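Structure first, sequence second, as always.
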């Protein structure tokens, strides 16, 4: 079964003056890595992030997805940055690592802004009354927000980072 692949066109025009081998080498460098925006932290923080992201039906905790919705909301901005960056790389005016950094910073900013907006739905009163002290998920929100980060990883890398 063939693997599904997705590509986005940057609509870069190539004239007869351009050296196609150099252009291919510049573009090939873009296919080897990708930018990931997410949480970096310990195991406890990962559990909190997962509960925020997907909720817990057993505990009555609603979903408060901030990473997935942040990715969706930032897609247009990131596509615009990527298309402009690919053109600059094609002409040799920018390096791939510079583009990765621009995408990472913009993606992180959008995800943090989305995190700030997501306060709904609140914890159910029944769930909140059973919890004691700082065990409420909201108590760790700033810690969770501060753990948001971006990194450049190999495109072949799938699954958990170690």
């Amino acid at each position: 079964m063939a693997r599904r692949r997705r590509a986005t066109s940057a609509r870069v025009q190539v004239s007869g003056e351009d050296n196609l081998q150099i252009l291919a080498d510049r573009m090939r460098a873009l296919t080897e890595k990708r930018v990931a925006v997410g949480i970096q932290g310990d195991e406890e923080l990962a559990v909190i992030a997962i509960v925020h992201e997907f909720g817990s039906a057993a505990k009555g905790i609603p979903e408060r997805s901030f990473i997935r919705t942040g990715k969706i909301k930032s897609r247009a901005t990131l596509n615009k940055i990527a298309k402009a960056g690919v053109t600059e790389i094609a002409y040799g005016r920018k390096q791939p690592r510079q583009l990765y950094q621009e995408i990472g910073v913009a993606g992180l900013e959008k995800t943090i802004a989305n995190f700030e907006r997501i306060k709904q739905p609140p914890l159910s009163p029944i769930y909140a009354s059973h919890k004691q002290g700082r065990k409420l998920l909201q108590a760790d929100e700033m810690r969770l927000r501060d753990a948001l980060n971006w990194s450049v990883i190999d495109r072949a890398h799938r699954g958990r980072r170690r």
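Margin note: The beta strands are 33-39, 148-154.
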